[in-house]
Amino acid sequence: EAGLADLIAPVDQLPEKILGYLRHAHTIVKTEFTLKEKDQSALEKILILLRARTGQDFSLYKRNTVYRRIERRMSIHQVDRIDSYVRYLQENPQEVELLFKELLIGVTGFFRDPDTWEHLQKEAISACLSSRPSGGILRAWSAGCSTGEEAYSLAIAFKEQLEQQRPKESFTLQIFATDLDRDAIDRARQGVYPANIAADVSPERLQRFFVKEDDTHYRVGKEIREMVTFATQNIIMDPPFTKLDILICRNLLIYLTPELQKKLMPLFHYSLNRGGVLFLGSAESVGSFTALFAPLNVKSRLFRRREVLAPTEPLAFPPSFFPAFQGVTKELMMKPAVSLQSLADQLLLQHFSPPAVLVNDKGDILYINGRTGKYLEPAAGKANWSIFSMAREGLRFDLGNAFQKALRQKEPVTVKGLKVGINGSATQTVDIAVQPIDEPEALRGMVMIVFTDVAASPETKAPARRKSTPSDSARVQELEQELKHYREEIQTIREEMQSSQEELKSTNEELQSTNEELQSSNEELTTSREEMQSLNEELQTVNAEQQSKMDELSRLNNDMRNLLNSTEIVTVFLDNQLHIRRFTSGADKLFKLRQGDVGRPLSEIVTDLVYPDLTEVAREVLRTLVFSERQIAAGDGRWFAVRIMPYRTMEDVIGGVVITFADITAFKRLETELLEENARLKELLENKNI
C-alpha cells in the first residue's frame, strides 16, 4: 500500500522472482545509449501513452534517463524488447501509471548540502530583508519540491535569519512548493517525516520547529507549516509563479534536455523580481544566460537576477514548449511510386530549367535549383545565407530594389540587362525575375528569384567619320543606366514616403481611439478596484473568523489529547469498515501499531490480547448499537477491561466504534488474593467445626 514494492508474491515464490529479475536485468544493460529507428519509434509511442493516460509530457526529458527507467520496468516484467513493452502498456493501463511513478525522481532531504543553505541564509535571505526597509511579504517558489523538505528548510532558514537580523519592520515569507507527483505533494502537506531526519536536522531545529509524534516520526510545527502552500504543478506545462524574491529549482534541470533548459532560464528571469535570487543544484548552472543572471555565490549555485533592457529572444511560456504530436509516424510514410512522367520532369528540371532561388520574405535562401554560382557566391566571414550578401557585383543593388518592389506590389518584377562580374574582368548579361508566391499555400509568403543569361549582342563597326570611340559609347550607356536606376530609386522612395505618411495618419487615428478606450477602461478599473477593496475587507473578516475557529479547534484538540492521556485508558477509534481511524498513546503496547497503520483494518494488526473474536464483537456492536464490556487477559499476564461502544457524531449518526482498554491487572491480582484468602478462611472454619 505504500507504493514502494516492485515485486509482490507469496514468500516461497519471491526468491525465484528476484533471481529472474536479476538475470533479466543483466541481459538488457547497455554500455551506450543508442536507439535504432524502430526502437526510437517505440519510445515515442510510450511517451504518447504516458501523455494520454496522465496528461504529462516527458518528450523533453533526457532520453537516456527516460530509457533507463523504462528498462527497469522491462526487467521487472522480464520483457526483452521495447516494442513488446509498448504492447504490454497498451494491454495493461495500470502499468502506465506505474511507469509514470517510476519516471518521477523524488530524491530530496532537509538542508541538502548544508554549506549552500548557509550561504543562502547569510547572503540571499539577508539581502532580501535589507533591500526592503519598509518590510512586507516576500514570495518564494520551490519548483520540483518532491515531499516538501526543501520548502520547509527555506521556511526554517528564513525564520532563523529573521530573528538574527531583527529588522525594524515586520516580514513574512510566502512559499509556493510545487511538484508533478500528487502523492508526494499529499505527503508534504501532512508534514510528517521519519525520525531519521535527525541526521540532517540539528537537535536545536528539531526541538524548536518540529513536534515529536512518537518514537518514529516528527511533525513540522504549525508556524512553519502555515508558511508553505503546496500544489501539484508541471513546471514545463503549467504557467509559472511570478513576482518572486527567491526561486529554488535544485536537481531538476539535470533531467531535462538542453533545449528545454534554454527555455526555462528566461522564464525564471521573468518570474523573479528585481534582484531576485535563483538557487540551483550542485550539478546545474545558468549556462550561457550570464546576461540574465549574475553569480552571487558560484560554488553554492546562487545567482541574482540581472536587469535586461531588451530581451534577446522572445519569452516562451510553458504551453509553447511542446511541439504538437504528429499523427503520421515514419512507419506510415510511403515512398511515391516512380513513373516515366516524374523521371522526365526531374530531367527537365536538372538540365533545361533556369537557375532559381527560393527565399523567405527576409531574403534568406531556403532552396536552390540549378547552378547559381555565376550569380551568387558565399560572403566572407561568418556563414550568411542572405541572398543580398551572396549576390555578385552588379546584381546586389538592382536585386534589392526589385525584391522590395515585388513584396510591396505583390506582383512579379523583372529587371533586364544587368552586368554581372565573373572571374575578374569578364562580365555576363543577366535578366532577373522576382516572383512573390501565393500558391501553393505551403509556399505562401516566399519569393522565387529566377536568373536568365542573355547572349551578348554582336558588335557593329562604327562609321569612319564618327569620332567617338567604343569606350566612350559604353561609358555613356553606363551613365544613362545609372541615372535611370537613381530616378527609379527616388520614385520608389517617394512612393514609400507617401505610403508611410498615410499609414502614420491612420495609426494616429487608431491611437486616439485607443486612448479613449483606455480612459474608459481606466474608469472601469477604478470602479473594480473599489469593489475589490470592499471584497477584500469582507474576506479579511471571514479569514479572521476562520482563524479564530481554527485556534479554538486547536485548543479543543489539545484538551482532548491531554484528557485521553491523563486517563491512562488506551483508546482506538474505528470507522464503519472497522479500519483504524485514530489511536491514543499506549495503543502500540497492546497492538503492533505505527502511525502509518491508520486506514488499515484492525483484523490485520497483531495484538497481545487473548481476544480472538474482537473484530466480530465490534461488528456486532456496530449492528446492534449495544455496547460490550469484557475482561481480557494479555499474553504477558496483564488484564484489561475492554469496552466497545458505538461512535456517535454531533448529528447522532453512527460513524464507527470506540474501543477502550483499561488496565485492571492490579484489580485482578487483588481479586485473586481475596479469593485465595476467602478459601483459606473457609477451610479454617470447616476444620474448627470438626
What does this structure look like?
This protein has 690 residues and is of the alpha+beta class. The chain folds into four domains: 11-103, Orthogonal Bundle (Chemotaxis Receptor Methyltransferase Cher, domain 1), CATH 1.10.155; 114-307, Vaccinia Virus protein VP39 (Rossmann fold); 353-455, 2-Layer Sandwich (Beta-Lactamase), CATH 3.30.450.20; 564-670, 2-Layer Sandwich (Beta-Lactamase). Helix content is 44%, strand content 19%. The protein is built from 18 helices and 20 strands. It has a seven-stranded mixed beta sheet with strand order 6-2-1-7-8-10-9. Strand 1, helix 7 (149-165) and strand 2 (171-179) form a beta-alpha-beta unit. Helix 2 (37-54) packs parallel to helix 4 (82-91), helix 4 packs across helix 5 (93-103) and helix 6 (114-130) packs across helix 7 (149-165). It is elongated. The model is unreliable at 26-33, 323-338 and 459-468 (pLDDT under 50).
Ordered list of secondary-structure elements with their pairings:
Blueprint: H1 14-27, H2 37-54, H3 63-76, H4 82-91, H5 93-103, H6 114-130, E1 136-143, H7 149-165, E2 171-179, H8 182-190, E3 192-194, H9 203-209, E4 210-212, E5 217-220, H10 222-225, E6 228-232, E7 244-249, H11 258-271, E8 272-280, E9 293-297, E10 302-305, H12 340-351, E11 356-359, E12 365-369, H13 387-390, H14 396-409, E13 413-422, E14 426-436, E15 447-454, H15 470-567, E16 570-574, E17 580-583, H16 587-590, H17 614-624, E18 628-633, E19 639-648, E20 654-663, H18 665-689
Parallel strand pairs: 1-2, 1-7, 2-6, 7-8
Antiparallel strand pairs: 3-5, 4-5, 8-10, 9-10, 11-12, 11-15, 13-14, 14-15, 16-17, 16-20, 18-19, 19-20
Helix pairs in contact: 1-3, 2-4, 2-5, 4-5, 6-7
